[in-house]
Each structure stands twice: as structure tokens, then as C-alpha cells.
């Protein structure tokens, strides 16, 4: 919401400034003063409105640092190009995507953990992998 608010405020700031200048040239000073007031109001929205954080993003759970990969556990592999999901052991070489040929992103998320997640958690994790991969 912050970016949209900044854009609208900037647009109305420009309209207010041009209208105030035009009214000043015509000699309608009270109306020009009113437009300057609107200019300052939209300027304040422009400056302070952009500081709000957008609520459209879900919080991604923090990764566990220094997570050691276990040899006998299968870990998720993800294709950032087509969305293919697979799993394999960490010792195996990461293959190309069987669907599109793009290189797979090797994650440190175990298959068992991924399978126990809700659909919303899985989608959030996929978005993270798309960003990282």
C-alpha cells in the first residue's frame, strides 16, 4: 500500500502545485492559498505514507543456521523456472529439471518436513526458493 499511496500523493501534489500557480496568476489568492494547503497535505502523505510496511507479504519462518545435512535423508529440489518439485539425498549431484531442463535449486528442507507443512506454508517456501534460486 505504501507505493500506491506515494504515487497518488505525488500526482495530487503536482496537480495542486499547478493549480495554485494558475490561480495565483489569475489573482485568485484565497483559492491559491487553499491549493497550497492541499499541496502541503499531499506532501506530508508522500513523506510519511511511504514508511508503512505492506501487509501483502507473509512472514517467512527464519531458517535454522548451520543446519547439517544428513546423508540418509531426502531433501527438496525445486525448479525456479517451471515449479517442478523433487527430492534426493544430499550426496547426489543436483540434476537438471526433467520438465524444462533448467538447473534445480538444492534446498536444505527435508522431504519429511515439507510433507508435513500446510499448503500455505509450502507456497510461501516456494516463493522463497524462487527468490533465492
- Strand-residue fraction? 5-15%
Oligomeric assembly: single chain
Number of strands: 3
Low-confidence stretches: none
Structural class call reads: mainly alpha
How are the strands of the biggest sheet laid out side by side?
Answer: 2-1-3
Overall helicity? 40-55%
Order of helices and strands: HHEEEHH
Straight-line distance between termini? 27 Å
In angstroms, what is the radius of gyration?
A: 26 Å
Shape: rod-shaped
Average pLDDT over all residues: 79
The biggest beta sheet is recorded as:
3 strands, antiparallel
Count of helices?
4
Description:
This protein has 133 residues and is mainly α. Helix content is 49%, strand content 11%. It is built from four helices and three strands, in the order ααβββαα. The protein has a three-stranded antiparallel β-sheet with strand order 2-1-3. Strand 1 and strand 2 (85-88) form a beta hairpin. Helix 1 (2-26) runs antiparallel to helix 2. The longest helix has 25 residues, at 2-26. The mean pLDDT is 79.
Amino acid at each position: 500500500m505504501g507505493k500506491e499511496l506515494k504515487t497518488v500523493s505525488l500526482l495530487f501534489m503536482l496537480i495542486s502545485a499547478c493549480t495554485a500557480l494558475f490561480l495565483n496568476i489569475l489573482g485568485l489568492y484565497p483559492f491559491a492559498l487553499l491549493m497550497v494547503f492541499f499541496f502541503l497535505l499531499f506532501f506530508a502523505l508522500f513523506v510519511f505514507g511511504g514508511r508503512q510496511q505492506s501487509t501483502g507479504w507473509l512472514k517467512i519462518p527464519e531458517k535454522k543456521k548451520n543446519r547439517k545435512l544428513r546423508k540418509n535423508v531426502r531433501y527438496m529440489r525445486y525448479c525456479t523456472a517451471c515449479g517442478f518439485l523433487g527430492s534426493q539425498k544430499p550426496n547426489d549431484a543436483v540434476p537438471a529439471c526433467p520438465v524444462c531442463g533448467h538447473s534445480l535449486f538444492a534446498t536444505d528442507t527435508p522431504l519429511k518436513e515439507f510433507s508435513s507443512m500446510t499448503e500455505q506454508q509450502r507456497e510461501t517456501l516456494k516463493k522463497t526458493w524462487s527468490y533465492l534460486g
